[in-house]
Specification:
The complex is a heterodimer of chains A (286) and B (395). Chain A has 286 residues and is mainly alpha-helical. In chain A, 73% of the residues lie in helices and 3% in strands. Chain A contains eleven helices and two strands, in the order ααααββααααααα. A two-stranded antiparallel sheet of chain A has the order 1-2. In chain A, a hairpin with a 2-residue loop joins strand 1 and strand 2. Chain B has two domains: 196 residues, 3-Layer(aba) Sandwich (Rossmann fold), CATH 3.40.50; 149 residues, Response regulator (Rossmann fold, 3-Layer(aba) Sandwich). Chain B has 395 residues and is an alpha/beta fold. In chain B, strands 8-7-9-10 form a four-stranded parallel β-sheet, with helices on both faces. A three-stranded mixed β-sheet of chain B has the order 1-3-2. In chain B, strands 4-5-6 form a three-stranded parallel β-sheet, with helices on both faces. Helices cover 47% and strands 21% of the residues of chain B. Chain B is globular and about 65 Å long. Classes of the chains: A mainly alpha (286), B alpha/beta (395). Chains A and B meet through helix 1, helix 4, strand 2, helix 10 and helix 11 of A and helix 2, strand 8, helix 7, helix 8 and helix 9 of B.
Amino acid sequence: MTLNVLVQALLNGFGLAMAYVLVALGLTLIFSILEIINFAHGEFYMFGAFVTYLAFTQVKAPFVLALLAAIVVVGLAGGVAERLVFRHLRGKTLNAFIVSLGLLWVMQAVAQIIFGIQDKSVPSAFSGVLRLGGVFISIERFAVIVCATLLIVALYAFLEWTRVGRAMRAAAQDADGAALQGVNIELISALGFALGCALAGASGALLAPVLSVSPWMGALPVVKAFIIIILGGMGSLPGAVLGGLILGVVEGVGTLFFSSAAVNMLGFLMVIAILVLRPRGLVGGA
Amino acid sequence: MTSVRSIACIMLVALFALAPVSSAAEKTLTIGLLGPLSGGAASYGVELLRGAEMKVDEINKAGGLKIGGDQYKLKLISYDHKAIAADAATAANKLVFQDKVKFIIGNAVGATCNAVQTVTEPQKVLFAFVCWGTKNLGPDKPYSFRSMLSQWEAAEPFYRWIKEKHPAIKRVAIISPNDTSGLDTNTAVVKAIKALGFELVAEETYERGTKDFYPLLTKMIAQKPDMIDVAAAPPGEAALLVKQARELGFKGAKGWTAGTNPFNLIEVAGKEAAEGIWSPVNINVKSDFVSPAVRKFGEEYEKRYKELPGVIAVANYAAFDVFTKSMVDAQSVEPEKVLTAITAKPHDTVWGKVVIGGKDTYGIDRQFLYPLVISEVRDGKVVDVAQTVPAALKK
C-alpha cells in the first residue's frame, strides 16, 4: 500500500465524519436537555437535505442561502415537534422512543409522497477536484469539512459564551436547579430541540450535493451519530467531535484492510467495548 | 313531485334487483405483489407495482379475463417488505393464507425471494419475480419464474461484447451490495470475465443504503483497473459510485451489469460522471431498438407517473401479461393448469417473443428469455449500441 492510498483513506474518513458529528451533536444536545433519544433525528437530517434540494432546484438560491434556509426551516420544525409532542414526554424514555419511531415513519412517508422514490441530485455549489500529489478530494467535500467545522465552533461559542447557551448547559446538568435559578426550562427545551434539529438539518444540507437525496437517507447518519456519541460520551460536545474523528479514521483506514461488512462491525464493536469498559464514553458526561 | 319520488323508488328497486345478477356473472381474481416499497431498494418495488397496476388497469378496462364462462376482474394486493427477508416471509404468509391468493406476480431482491418461496412452493402458488439470486430457480422450485434476464444471462454476452469492441480493457474491478442478489451477481460476473480472459483486480461488496463510497473506491482504484463494474448496485448507489470514482481520479471504463434505470443514474450522478457507462439489461423506452409496444408502454407510464420506467416495470408488466394470457389459454385459474400453459409455448409480450427456458443453468425451464440490448450513456442520453442474445436463448 502506498502512502498516497493511506492519506487518501484518512481524508475519506475525515471528510464525512465532520458532517456526521453535526448530527451527533444535535442528538446529544436533545438528549441532554430533554432526556429523550430522538430516533427521528435522521429524518430532520433528511428534511434539511430536501429543503436544500428545493432551494437549489425551485428557487435557484445560492449555496449559503440554501444552507441557512435548511437550518432555519428544520430548526423551526424541531421547535414545533418539541412544543406539540416531545415536551409532554420529557423523561419518559419508553414513550418518547415509541413516539420518535412513529415520527420517523411519518416523515419518511410524507417525503416519499411529496418527492417520490427515486434518489434526487442536488447540483454542486463547488465543482472541481483538489489534487495534492496522488490524493484527491472534491471541492464540495472540502467545503463540507470547512462548513461543518465552522458550525461546530459556532455551537461551542454559543454554548460557552451566550446567556441562552449557558442556560441550556445548566438545564442539561440539572433542570430543577436551573429552574430555581430562574431559567425558563420550557423555553430552553424548545430552543434546545430546535437547535439540535437545526444541526441535523445543516448536516443534511451540506451533504445533499455530495451524496444524493432520498426519503430514506436519514437511516445511516443517525446510526453513525449514535456510535459517535456513545464513543465520545452522551452530552459531551468535545466527546462528539473526538468520537466522530475516531469513527472516521476507523472506517476510512479499516476499509483498506477489511471488507465493508467487517468495517461496519468495527464501529459497533467499539460501542460495545466502550459501554462495557467506560460507559460514560471517552470524554464523559455533560 | 310524487312522480319523481316514484321513479326514484322504482330505479332503486331495479338497482337492488339487478345487482346480484351482475355480481354473479363477474368474479374477482386477487393477485399478490411483494416488493421493497420503502427503503434503499424502493425504486425496484415501486416499479414492480407500477408495471402491475398498468397491466391490471388495462385488463379491467377491457372487461377483464374471460375464463371458463366467467368474467374475472383483477384485484391487486401489494405488501412492502423493505427488502428484508423476514418481512417478505410474513407478507407472503399474509397473501397466501389471509388473502388467499394463488398468484404472486412481482418481487425483488434475492434474499426476499428465498423467503417468499418457503411459503409459495409448498402451497403451489405461482410466483414471478425479478430477483437475481441464482438459487431462486431450480427443479425444487417448480412454481417460480424469473421474469427478467439475470446476471447469468447478461454477464457473459456483455463481457464478450466488451472484449470484442474494447480490447484495451484487461483489468476489471467489480462492486455489488453484500446480499444474495449482489453476491450472486458478482459470482456470475467473475465467472464470465475469467472465462473470457480478463483479469479480476478487485471484488468488493457493500451494505445497501451506503452513500459514501470513497473508502471502498480508494481501495479499488489503487489496483489500477481499466474498468469498474458497479454490477448489482441499484440506480441511486450506482450513480454515487461512478460520481465518486470520477472525483477520486478514475478515468477508465464503467460497466453496470445489472443496471436497471440509467435515467435515474444520470440524474443523480450528473452527465459527466455517467458518461460512457455501459449496461446490458436496462431498457431505454425511447430507443429505436425497442419495439413499438415498449415505446407505447413508456409513454403511458411517463404520462401516469411523471417518470420514465426502468426495466423492472417493463418486466413485471410482461410477467402479468404472460400469466394472465396463460390463464385464458388454460381457461382456468387453477395454478397447476396455468403453469402448464405458461411453459407450453413462447409468449408474445411487450418484449416481443419471450421463451421460457434456462434449464442448462438452473435445471428447469423457468427463466424468461429475450434478446438483451447493451446501452451506453452519451452526453446525458441513453444510447443503445448493440443487441445480443443470451446463450440460453440461442439454443
